[in-house]
Amino acid sequence: MDAETFRRFGHEVVDWVANYLQEVEHYPVLSPVSPGEVREQLPSSPPPVGETMEAILGDFQDIILPGITHWNHPRFFAYFPANNSGPSILAELLSAGLGVNAMLWQTSPAATELEELVMDWLRQMLNLPSSFRGVIQDTASTATLCALLCARERLSGFQINAHGFSAWSEQGPLRVYASREAHSSVEKGLKIAGFGAGNLVLVSVDENYGMDPQDLEKRIQEDREQGFNPCCVTATVGTTSSTALDPLRPIGEIAQRHGVWFHVDAALAGSAAILPEKRWILDGIELADSLVFNPHKWLFTNFDCSAFFCRHPEVLTATFSILPEYLKTDIDRQVTNFRDWGIQLGRRFRALKLWFVLRYYGVEGLQEMLREHLALAQEFKEWIEESRDFELLAPVPLNTICFRFQPGMRSGQDLPSEELERLNKALLDEVNRSGRIYMTHTRLGDNFCLRLSIGQTQTRREHVVQAWESLQGSQTVQSMH
Amino acid sequence: MDAETFRRFGHEVVDWVANYLQEVEHYPVLSPVSPGEVREQLPSSPPPVGETMEAILGDFQDIILPGITHWNHPRFFAYFPANNSGPSILAELLSAGLGVNAMLWQTSPAATELEELVMDWLRQMLNLPSSFRGVIQDTASTATLCALLCARERLSGFQINAHGFSAWSEQGPLRVYASREAHSSVEKGLKIAGFGAGNLVLVSVDENYGMDPQDLEKRIQEDREQGFNPCCVTATVGTTSSTALDPLRPIGEIAQRHGVWFHVDAALAGSAAILPEKRWILDGIELADSLVFNPHKWLFTNFDCSAFFCRHPEVLTATFSILPEYLKTDIDRQVTNFRDWGIQLGRRFRALKLWFVLRYYGVEGLQEMLREHLALAQEFKEWIEESRDFELLAPVPLNTICFRFQPGMRSGQDLPSEELERLNKALLDEVNRSGRIYMTHTRLGDNFCLRLSIGQTQTRREHVVQAWESLQGSQTVQSMH
Questions:
Q1: Residue B342 and residue B372 in one domain
Q2: Is this structure's pTM higher than 0.90?
Q3: Interface ipTM above 0.95
């Protein structure tokens, strides 16, 4: 494609994205297509000869777009926010144009040095000790796996890397501790890294769904007595279900006392710690060995961009470094080669978009946007509390509200839980199919919960009001009156 | 950032990228900056208040750009091509704008269905059996790790996933086989997955640096006799050093005979198999259990986009699936949820750029561009063969030439190998510092080799001629005449 053709269609695509972001509110949030509907409209074999960009962009509009669930939609309240922003998209375009691989310093010095810089900016914004060094990973799943591998290698003196678990098996199985509310990536990491899912010890939670440190210590002690090797504890700051907060300080003190790696998964909630009034959620973080949080969730940076901090970069690089002849450079001792800071060799130039976002909005601008999301969540929580039909199912420390429709409240007669689950599933299905809002569910204890997660870039008070109206005005709710 | 501001700067950035791709030839290929030079020009703390896009783009131009090594440059001959194209960049911009997460079918049906479709298009282009199912991974490192994990779990009956290696240790260590020329990601994968680097058995290579199947079989048999568990063999189609080709059919037959998972790493070279006259490099691929090749290397798709095929998707998904309540959807049984096809939960919408590239160029257009690269490599090889000062150090089956300056050839007196290494390092350093071309090195046996890898989108005959002239005209070479 020559420069003029690129320029012509580039302008067209920029206009398309600008219009899209302006009009996204008018699309159904959740794609209404049925399984197979997109694929069956497309040829089953690749085209033998090239096609025009007009034809490709036309099919994008007519066939792909209806199959998109709009994560940028101001009424996207599902899962977690994956918020996005103009400066981030522009930087992603530049990064795609440059097409550099940030695997070594030499393969683009600016990509490595900018990554070091912006990760240090984030460190300052979160008020982490200067001993924390940062690297951008693709996802929190990967970052948590990196933490588990560091824990495994530090404990085994790098013997599992060298000789495998087989050489280590006489020492007894390695154990990892996380609360019952921890993310599924912890269990997945245990499988990948060879610990086995059965060596994940699920620690009890308190009534707010935060980890109970006493139960943690008890389980570590019991494991030691039974010949297991306590290796790592993962605390969650902002669980996926309800943004519950594990208390870092007591957990960190226990980890330190037992010589266990202390990893903190703040994938969603870490962003909130840039607010002075919310920094307490990371109280005790100086005891952590590693921390992950995702600017691609709630810091206006498009996916993927996961910030991984480690207090022992020498353990991290000893865990991951490889040095075949064809990757050696003359200056390996003077520079950071991020290929040694994680699983992948090849690395995208992700620092650019983070740099664009942090500069365009500034720390205060980002704080202001997060404060608005938090205030909207509190307001929605109050509507639930004041309602005669809905009840809150967990505290709301951040941006996510867990609740359910409970029509029995009016009459003082709670419905049986199966009936409640059936009703709330019907309600969820109804509002999601309407295309007006998109929410997801979870389970807390035995309770089936609706979840409303607030954090999209364009979400304003009116959209949260509309979500509330959609729920209240639904057939499922109205038919019970 | 409002739509009008996005539009305005979007047009500016598109023009910048168009100009950049047109003028990239005029930049030094290898960035000339010194360690720390980029970072020290930037503020050490994040800006408290937002800045203008003009300021950010100005710093991008003045500070970041000089620190970029230009992978798009037509005289980039280092490492491997990471070629790029207009349609790929445009699709990446759309993907960033949509900002969807392709973790589940429901979180954007079109992202999942398009990924299934374009991976099947690639399967057809490579003439793979229809039993191969594809998924896009970020890198070949990740894909090879996935293959190792599938091999581990199939052999252990999913017991290592469930209970860890500790529960499996009585069975004896698991062994993995690869040639001495295999990529470092195989060893790294063994570490991550808990096999241990010491359980990588390096199989001998023949005079062309391809794996010796007889040695493979011998080592598997010896291992069995000694109580090891042969688990996986990784064959390389196109090694990193010299694009050597392991013979798939005999290796596959041995793997089958011994019940060992057979993974094929064709990260670079797989693209060449879309040419009917080069399809023989994959002869025997129907015996493989998995295959990876990277459209982000040599198929005009910007990084990252790694194509992973597996003949046992049920093993792959059993290895990686997790299903916490908050990710369940009503249609999980009817659709593909790619979160279960790899390590990460969150996934970018990468299929879009592959679809744009395959449609814009068509199969024949892609074939034509690859044929040109292959012809240029043969021509460069002939220049080396005809030269009185340079010698070829490996066969050139594809796009990469391994050679060295050998001034003793004129006089019939070979220089000692230390002297040759010193001279060739000086030559490499000199031409790379000139900014005119960028090459890297490797080692084959005891020989230090210069490597010229041809495959950038804009590389034409004149650029390969210029590379040859740069080498011949260098001070290092001239001073020896």
A1: no
A2: yes
A3: yes
